[in-house]
Design brief:
Strand order of the largest sheet of chain B: 2-1-5-3-4
Radius of gyration of chain A: 18 Å
Shape of chain A: globular
Strand content of chain A: 25-35%
Shape of chain B: globular
Largest sheet of chain A: 5 strands, antiparallel
Number of helices of chain B: 6
Largest sheet of chain B: 5 strands, mixed
Order of helices and strands of chain A: EHEHEEEHHHHHHEEHEEEEEEEHH
Number of strands of chain B: 5
Strand content of chain B: 15-25%
Strand order of the largest sheet of chain A: 4-5-10-6-7
Oligomer: heterodimer
Helix content of chain A: 25-40%
Largest interface: A-B, 25 and 28 residues
């Protein structure tokens, strides 16, 4: 393999100038990319590192009250955000349990989305929260809801070559209650066998009882299930189409999707009374 | 590529390939305290501090440290002598392969969570694997370092 070119632009428009040409691969935190390089799964001609683009970092509130999280915000920064713990606690929770502190200090929100490994923690939480991804390309900016076509398949997303994820907007929970839980039978820093993120509208809101449930680890992409409490467990089971691997058989994962959905809901409903 | 960064408090300039990893670049300077274990960010043996945050140097592309402040166990031992003293006093090691990473992680802990109680200490160190000690003496060393 010949050495790729390594470029580190400081402005977003400079990033856009270079990502569309050659076989360029974007590097954010690089924690997953590093493993793919080592395994020779990718042999890029150019690496475009986003770490010096200040406008891609940080968490701030948009005019509509949603939280705009820059693509290069680290998982540690998300996990340390009091605003996200208040307004989207399952997102902060999910970021706080990824791997170990060393990974969380480097891995980023945009990286987690674009890598699109269905075992990751953050995507189901963002999916259940109704987050919207901002993508910039040569034609300008477009906004793609995670619920509507962002995840295309195993490690495939709506982000095209030449485009960059700039941010994700997370709507606040307002009256809803929510939680993210992961089942890691092997070790706590492993990928979850099954993970469940749930945002449940409360009785006193106009959308009482509506449940947005997102499952990780049980399909080629995170799966969203929009249902209610009574039907949640059966819907989770029906939505699971896992493959058997070292973290469990397909049958076991399907059963665990149901069990962990029930556990998360029990926890949320207990908090209600 | 030419990289310029602070290494253990001193400015250093060196050449590294665009896909070189930090652990290899550090070891090539003669600082062989940092060990590579799993090579995939799981075991913690290669823990170093970049801008005072612990990272896995086996997954960290070397060009990304250009302009950064990098500390390995060699420099950390001088910067945080109380951490080394605590590991020695509590016998927080056996075979020693994980020790540079454990020491680096505890140094980061003293910066990030100086008042950490035991559950927080264990949480912070859960990605630094040790196959010898059973962790009791490592946690004791971390506690002693924070109390020092």
């Amino acid at each position: 393999m010949t050495d790729p070119e390594f470029v580190a632009p400081t402005m977003l428009h400079h990033v856009l100038d270079v990502v569309g040409v050659d076989d360029a691969i974007i590097v954010s935190g690089g924690t997953s990319l590093a493993v793919m390089l080592k395994q020779r799964l990718i042999e890029p001609e150019k690496l475009v590192w986003l770490g010096r683009v200040a406008e891609l970092k940080g968490i701030r509130q948009a005019a509509d009250g949603s939280w705009r999280v820059g693509a290069c915000t680290t998982l540690a920064e998300v996990a340390a955000s009091p605003e996200l713990w208040r307004d989207a606690p399952m997102v902060a929770q999910a970021a706080s349990v990824v791997a170990n502190p060393r990974i969380r200090n480097v891995a980023t929100v945009g990286g987690a989305l674009v890598h699109a490994d269905p075992r990751q923690d953050l995507p189901p939480a963002l999916l259940a929260a109704g987050a919207i991804v901002g993508i910039r390309g040569p034609g300008g900016e477009r906004l793609v809801p995670l619920r509507n076509g962002f995840f295309r398949g195993l490690m495939e997303t709506a982000v095209e070559h030449g485009e960059v994820v700039t941010h994700v907007c997370v709507p606040p929970r307002r009256d809803a209650v929510e939680a993210y839980r992961r089942f890691t039978p092997q070790s706590v820093d492993d990928y979850p066998t099954v993970s469940v993120a749930a945002r449940l509208e409360r009785k006193d809101s106009g959308r009482a009882g509506q449940l947005n449930l997102a499952l990780g680890g049980v399909a080629p992409t995170p799966v969203l299930v929009q249902t209610d409490v009574a039907n949640a467990a059966a819907a989770a089971r029906a939505a699971a189409s896992p493959t058997s691997d070292e973290r469990g058989s397909a049958e076991y994962k399907t059963a665990m999707a149901e069990v962990w959905t029930q556990r998360v809901l029990a926890e949320l409903l207990e908090g209600e009374t | 590529m030419k990289l310029t960064f602070h290494l253990n408090g001193r400015m250093i300039e060196l050449e590294a390939g665009p896909t070189a990893f930090l652990v290899d670049v550090l070891r090539s300077t003669g600082l062989t305290g940092t060990k590579e274990g799993c090579g995939m960010g799981v075991c913690g043996a290669c823990t170093v501090l970049v801008d005072d945050r612990p990272v896995s140097s086996c997954l960290y592309l070397a060009p990304c440290v250009d302009g950064a402040d990098v500390w390995t166990v060699e420099g950390l031992a001088e910067r945080f002598p109380q951490v080394v003293d605590a590991f020695v006093a509590e016998e927080g090691m056996q075979c020693g392969i994980c020790t540079p990473g454990q020491v680096a992680a505890v140094c980061a802990l003293t910066l990030e969570k100086p008042a950490a109680a035991e559950p927080e200490i264990r949480e912070y160190l859960n990605g630094n694997l040790c196959r010898c000690t059973g962790y009791q003496t490592i946690v004791a060393a971390a506690k002693a370092a924070l109390d020092a």
